[in-house]
Structure formats: structure tokens, C-alpha cells
Amino acid sequence: QLQASGGGLVQPGGSLRLSCAVSGLSLDYHALGWFRQAPGKEREFVASIAGGGVTKYGDSVKGRFTISRDIRKNMLYLQMNSVNAEDTAVYYCHRYVPPTWGQGTQLTVSS
Fold first, then answer.
1. C-alpha span between 33 and 87 (Å, rounded)
2. How far apart are CA 111 and CA 40, in angstroms?
3. Coil, strand or helix: which one is 6?
4. E strands along the chain, which residues?
5. H helices then E strands: how many in the chain?
6. pLDDT (tens place) for every residue of the chain, 111 residues total
7. Rounded distance between C-alpha atoms, residue 89 and residue 34, angstroms
8. In whole angstroms, what is the distance from residue 93 CA to residue 105 CA?
9. pLDDT value at residue 54
């Protein structure tokens, strides 16, 4: 199971960290990711971290967002810095194999 949390209202330029509690698997053996979906748009890849720790990022968040994990706590994180209005979306944590989606958490960027 995947349970995302930590969303909220943030001002442009601000920061926020999302968390995803992961159960039923070992993070060092499974690839996990973050996706987001804005109103009226398709779900978009944000970031991923492989079992071995290699990370990848979507072009729109490179240099601003950082994906990380705590293997002992079975937690996945997404640190978001310098957010802007285009980052407003519901954020989902995702397990690749088998494909599994957690409940999303809403980020709203507004002044």
C-alpha cells in the first residue's frame, strides 16, 4: 500500500515536502515514483528512484524537486523547492512493479 501526505497551500517560491508511507515491500528492491495530475490534464511523471537509488526527474521539476527515501522507515519523499503555480496538482506516489497507485495529496501554489 502507498499513502501520500503532506500537501497543502504554498506561496510561489516556497517549499514543501511530500511523504509516502509504503508498506508490503522493501524500498531497496523496488522502484518508486511521484506523479502529478492537474485539473484537465493528463497524469505527469515527476520523479522516480530505482531500487539501487538512481533518480530521474521530469524536465519541469529538474533542479527544484528532490526525491528521496528512508529504507528503514519505508518512506518515500518529495522535497519541492521554488514552487510555482504550474506545480499545482494532486501528487501521487507510485510503485512500478506491479503498477500500484496510492491516494493523492493536493498541492496548491497560490499567493
1. 16
2. 22
3. coil
4. 2-5, 8-10, 16-22, 32-37, 44-49, 55-57, 65-70, 75-80, 89-95, 100-101, 105-109
5. 0, 11
6. 899 999 999 999 999 999 999 988 888 889 999 999 999 999 999 999 999 999 999 999 999 999 999 999 999 999 999 999 999 999 999 999 889 998 899 999 999
7. 12
8. 9
9. 97
Burial class (CB in 10 A: 0-12, 13-18, 19+), 37: middle
Cell numbers found for residue 78 = 518529495
Phi, psi angle pair for 27, to nearest 5°: -65, -25
pLDDT, residue 87, reads 97
